[in-house]
Amino acid sequence: MIEFKNVSKKYGEDFAVEDVNFKVEEGEFFVIIGPSGCGKTTTLKMINRLIPLTEGYIYFKEQPISEFPLYEMRWDIGYVLQQIALFPHMTIRENIAQVPEMKGWKNKDIDARVDELLEMVGLEPGKFRDRLPGELSGGQKQRVGVIRALAADPPVILMDEPFSALDPISRESLQDDLIELQKKIKKTVVFVTHDIQEALKMGDRICLLNKGRVEQIGTPEAFLTHPENDFVSDFIGDVDGYMMKRATAADVVKTLPAMEEGQTGEVPEVPHEADINTLFKYFSTHDRVTIVGDGARRSLSREELFKYLSGSESGDVR
Ligand SMILES: Nc1ncnc2c1ncn2[C@@H]1O[C@H](COP(=O)(O)OP(=O)(O)O)[C@@H](O)[C@H]1O
Ligand SMILES: [Mg+2]
Predict the structure, then answer these.
(1) How far is CA 130 from CA 50, 102, 126, 136, 138, in A?
(2) Cis omega (within 30 of 0) on the bond before 220?
(3) Residue bearing the CA closest to ligand 1, atom 6
(4) Are the beta carbons of 192 and 41 closer than 8 angstroms?
(5) CA–CA separation, 22 vs 5, rounded Å?
(6) How many domains, the chain?
(7) Are 148 and 98 in contact (CB under 8 A)?
(8) Structural domain contains residue 318
């Protein structure tokens, strides 16, 4: 869907992005991560031509991006920023309706779409449609920012640290919503973050940048089990520690509730002494498993495993 071939961006003599190569598949959630100033935003903005590249090629739907009219790029590629810039004097409906209106949709189709999108992110249309942005909380504005990018149903969405300005609770709930949403709508998403936990939780694949260059591209599993160099392992943190301490499925689920007697769990069922590598193997083919042992059964999702490994709910290892 999107391909970078030897792409560089220079400002004067300095590379902001240097010789970057990757291919984002259709329907993939691709995360670009790295420290501040490593070239994440520049990479993202080159995709929809907000920033021109210096060297190399970027392909969109197998065609060089230079061959698309600019308006088509902007319509086919939704864009979500860190600080959502909603138009303050326009209602939520008017804000969401911008691209559909430019594309000449009928009013009744726009109204239906706006309500559908508001419902999708848990904002009651009757209550929120006619409000002004100033009447929404930060998390609600961010939700509107996400659905505004989805309004005209673009095949690709670019997101630049969309949740980083939020408090941890709104942030987690928006991450969870976006994961659920993505399961339904299966867009091609390029998502920028500097937060490794967010990257591991959200990404089908992750691309780690350092000073404009790619350090590693791969699945969360690959990052955790096979970091390619010291920069990568340092960036991920102490996940290796969990392997060294021989963490088991029982450790991972110990804070999760046990299922009721007679409740049926997801297959496969995994014994609680299974180690982390064994769990990865199950999660490469399933989104959820049931951990069985000590007379209890606990349901574990892929996201919960990564949350545990990236340290947010461990306490004792970090
Ligand atoms: N307009 C610009 N002029 C000069 N240097 C820039 C410009 N925009 C970004 N840079 C530099 O390019 C590098 C990458 O920036 P950016 O892509 O914004 O990083 P990130 O989003 O990862 O924090 C940084 O060193 C930044 O200072
Ligand atoms: Mg940035």
Answers:
(1) 31, 20, 8, 11, 17
(2) no
(3) 11
(4) yes
(5) 7
(6) 2
(7) yes
(8) no
Given 220, 236, 252, the domain boundary residue is 236
Residues 99 and 57 in one domain: yes
Phi, psi (degrees; rounded to nearest 5) at 269: -95, 135
Q: Which of 7, 9, 11 to mutate to test the pocket of ligand 1 (most atoms within 8 A of CB)?
A: 11
Higher pLDDT, 171 or 289: 289
Whether 272 lines ligand 1, by a CB cut-off of 6 Å, is: no
pLDDT at residue 135 is higher than 90: yes
Of the residues 187, 212, 236, the one at which a domain ends? 236
- Indicate if the pLDDT at residue 240 is higher than 90: no
Residues 230 and 296 reside in one and the same domain: no
**How many CB atoms are closer than 10 A to CB 234?**
10
Q: Is 156 in the pocket of ligand 1 (CB under 6 A)?
A: no
List, in sequence order, every residue forming a beta bridge with 22; answer none if it has no partner: 4
Same domain, 31 and 110: yes
29 and 138 both lie in a single domain = yes
The mean pLDDT of the chain is 89
Distance 74 CA to ligand 2 centre (A): 19
Residue 81 to residue 48: CA distance in whole angstroms: 13
- Does ligand 1 lie within 6 Å of residue 162's CB atom? no
- 35 Cα to the center of ligand 1, angstroms: 12
Of all protein residues, the one whose alpha carbon is nearest to atom 16 of ligand 1 is 39
74 shares a domain with 138:
yes
Q: What's 254's domain CATH number?
A: 3.90.1280
CA–centroid distance, residue 152 to ligand 1 (Å)? 30
Owning domain of residue 201 = 2-236
DSSP string for residues in 219-241 = -HHHHHH---SHHHHHHH-THHH
Confidence band of 315 (pLDDT split at 50, 70, 90): very low
- Give the closest residue to 212 by CA, choosing from 48, 23, 55: 55
